[in-house]
Specification:
The protein is α/β, with parallel strands linked by helices. Helix content is 46%, strand content 14%. The chain has seven helices and eight strands; from the N terminus they run H-H-H-E-E-E-E-E-E-H-H-E-H-E-H. Strand 1 (77-80) and strand 2 (84-87) form a beta hairpin. The termini are far apart.
């Protein structure tokens, strides 16, 4: 009877250990299958590489916002003397960088005798399509031609340098609008920044 009890105990311990081992071996596959099922049903998990801002409630059309932020992520940059980093020319569905100065395309765009807009990401149009930028809205409201010199991350010094460069290239605006602020504070109003 004692021998039977030991064999039963050993078999039960072996069975429990085998079940735990099987659970450890199979759980990654089961968890992955569960994750795949949840991911295929959830728009938030389908695009883990997409900027989370694409899912903000501001964007009613999530397909548009996902496309827009994926385009934004793909934009290459190039260094330009006196002004710093600038986007390179691209032709995407929602974002187009064109022209002599690699500027964001706007509705009613014209380089000469137009209203020139300068500033950082707000003026450039971060998070909106070409037709939704401030210069495009200005053109829609006034029918005046516009040109968007804005660039993400720019401060007023870079915008001023771009204005000087453009006038130096014999281009002439009908009016100039600067919309700067946060990048100036971030770049120039911090104690640790000792240089321009």
């Amino acid at each position: 009877m004692r021998k039977n009890f030991n064999i039963n105990s050993i078999l039960r311990v072996l069975g429990i250990n085998f079940a735990i081992l099987a659970l450890f071996l199979l759980s990654p596959a089961l968890l992955y299958r569960l994750y795949s099922n949840v991911k295929s049903r959830s728009p938030y998990l389908q695009n883990l590489n997409t900027d989370p801002r694409a899912y903000y409630p501001t964007y009613a059309d999530k397909k548009f916002s996902i496309e827009l932020f994926n385009e934004l992520k793909k934009l290459p940059t190039i260094y330009k003397s006196f002004i710093g980093w600038r986007r390179e020319r691209v032709q995407f569905k929602h974002i187009n960088i064109t022209g002599k100065y690699n500027t964001r395309q706007s509705l009613g765009e014209s380089l000469n005798n137009s209203v020139w807009f300068f500033g950082g990401s707000t003026m450039w149009g971060n998070g909106v399509a070409d037709s939704q930028t401030i210069p495009s809205h200005y053109n829609s409201l006034t029918a005046n031609p516009v040109y968007n010199f804005g660039e993400t991350g720019w401060n007023s010094r870079q915008s001023l340098n771009q204005l000087i460069n453009s006038i130096g290239d014999n281009h002439k605006p009908s009016a100039v609008i600067f919309y700067d602020g946060v990048n100036d504070i971030y770049d120039h109003c911090r104690r640790e920044n000792q240089e321009l």
